[in-house]
Recover the amino acids of this structure.
């Protein structure tokens, strides 16, 4: 007992052991919990407004063109049929928001855990290094898929309602599968690239710079080589962002007629698919190898 000013006395209540009586979940459920929590962190949930600006800006850039197209389609549909040929071109717009979100948000999630000591707390739970990395990667990947899938689906629904989109239930289901495949293709390589860089680079600011360089610089280099030295178009497969974008466009089976120098339009689809798989597998292997050897700070 201790006496405080005003003749108030501290008392001890329920000092005994109290067992946990809530629901007991399997240890693997912590993976889903971490993924859900990381989704909230990436979107700035329960944080200051400036922490939400990254997600707001990225999704605004990726979705604003679709919103404008939907508005125009609904407003001017009576003046003629609308052709649903915007899906392929729209992925180029989506890639801008995707790059912005990947470059900034991923290091703020993974590198912050390492520098703040959260990683050691996570690994003290049933989470292993591999399951931790899988949960964090899934959080980033899910948001990137939503960034490219939602606006395309909205376009498809609106255009179908106006009689200019996929006709019939079967055609719309095929369109849905193609849109999902395109979203996965567009998000896979940038996600694994960002995670791999964050596993190698400890500082958040430096990781942001390295990810941006890895996503943006190869496009200029490959275009320069193809235009100036006459290198084969296949050299463009070393550009991770362009490879992802090419596969996303081909997922809709639309004609590739814009033969831009340095593009992958002249490259076979099989090589594009193999390049995406090689990038994703190689970068994932680098991230798992690095986290397996990483010294966790406490």
């Amino acid at each position: 007992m201790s006496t405080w000013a005003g003749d108030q006395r501290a008392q001890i209540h329920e000092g005994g052991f109290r067992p946990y009586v809530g629901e007991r979940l399997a240890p693997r459920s912590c993976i889903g919990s971490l993924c859900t929590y990381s989704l909230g962190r990436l979107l700035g949930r329960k944080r200051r407004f400036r922490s939400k600006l990254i997600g707001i800006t990225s999704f605004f850039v990726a979705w604003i063109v679709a919103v404008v197209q939907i508005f125009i389609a609904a407003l001017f549909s009576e003046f003629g049929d609308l052709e649903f040929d915007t899906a392929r071109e729209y992925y180029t717009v989506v890639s801008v928001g995707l790059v912005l979100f990947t470059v900034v948000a991923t290091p703020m999630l993974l590198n912050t855990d390492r520098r703040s000591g959260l990683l050691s707390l996570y690994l003290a739970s049933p989470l292993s290094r591999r399951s931790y990395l899988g949960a964090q990667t899934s959080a980033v990947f899910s948001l990137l898929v939503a960034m490219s899938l939602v606006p395309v689906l909205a376009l498809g629904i609106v255009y179908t309602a106006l009689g200019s989109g996929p006709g019939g239930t079967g055609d719309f289901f095929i369109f849905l599968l193609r849109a999902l495949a395109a979203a996965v293709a567009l998000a896979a390589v940038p996600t694994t690239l960002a995670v791999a860089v964050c596993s190698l680079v400890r500082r958040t600011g430096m990781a942001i710079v390295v990810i941006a360089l890895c996503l943006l610089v190869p496009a200029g280099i490959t275009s320069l080589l193809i235009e100036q030295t006459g290198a084969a178009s296949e050299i463009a497969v070393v550009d991770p962002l362009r490879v992802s974008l090419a596969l996303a466009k081909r997922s809709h089976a639309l004609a590739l007629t814009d033969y831009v120098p340095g593009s992958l339009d002249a490259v076979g689809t099989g090589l594009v698919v193999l390049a995406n798989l090689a990038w994703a597998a190689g970068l994932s292997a680098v991230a798992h190898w690095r986290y397996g050897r990483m010294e966790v700070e406490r």
Q: What stands out?
A: The chain has nine helices and two strands. The mean pLDDT is 81. The longest helix spans residues 129-161.
